[in-house]
Amino acid sequence: MTASAEPAKPITAISNALDALRTACAFLTILPAAADTGEQQRGYLASAMGMFPIVGAGIGGVAAVVLSVAMYLDMNSFVSAALALATAVIITGALHEDGLADLADGFGGGRTPDDKLRIMHDSRIGTFGVLALVFGVLLRVGALAALAGSSMAVTALIAAGALSRTPMVVMAHRLPMATFTGLAAHAGRPAIRQVIIASVFAVLIAAIALGLAKGVAAVIAAAIGAGTVAWLALRQIGGCNGDVFGASQQVAEAAVMLAIVAVP
Length: 264
Prior knowledge:
Blueprint: H1 2-5, H2 8-28, H3 38-41, H4 52-72, H5 77-92, H6 95-109, H7 113-121, H8 127-147, H9 151-163, H10 166-174, H11 183-186, H12 192-210, H13 212-237, H14 242-262
Helix pairs in contact: 2-4, 4-5, 4-9, 4-12, 5-8, 6-7, 6-8, 6-14, 8-9, 8-14, 9-12, 9-14, 10-12, 10-14, 12-13, 13-14
């Protein structure tokens, strides 16, 4: 009895990892990856956040396929880059772009923390939100277009997808919640183990995809970009929420893409 029960441990570990991956995928994309998405509301998402970089790399990988096909069909680099990033937006349901727009409107238009949160919760988009989206898209498309035609464009999308979603795990672990409503507040606080898992995955993906010099630059860029958003959130609304997470991903992704272009 004891001997036959022993192999169940690695099988259970693999099963738990796959469940966590499905949960992370269901949260970060529109794909029906998890059978019970209600698990996210009960705090199960917090124990799945270590898989965020894996899902991010997968999103970047799909975008990279679209980029490669577009370039093979002799489309110009800007159009190819735009199609690739549009694919990523579709897969994620514009989840992160929505957060960036809401944060820009709230921080740019509100005077008090409560006022800023009220504006962020408003589904309508204002001038600051539109400008943030426009500049964010232009920076990412421009950076990717500069890489288009080389293998680095493909690996850059994969690395940026992984690195830009890792700071969300760190922020969820370290920062206080600015509001106790919304999916981000109900997701739960990830343990330090999830932060370590996510960080290791992200760094390994960046190193393999980009090499040492560009990989280090990309990691630093992601940390600075997302860290700036976190610092602003603490000053503006006293903590984080779903919009802060989304904005941090967008800023980190743009920073990573620019760093890859800048470092020879």
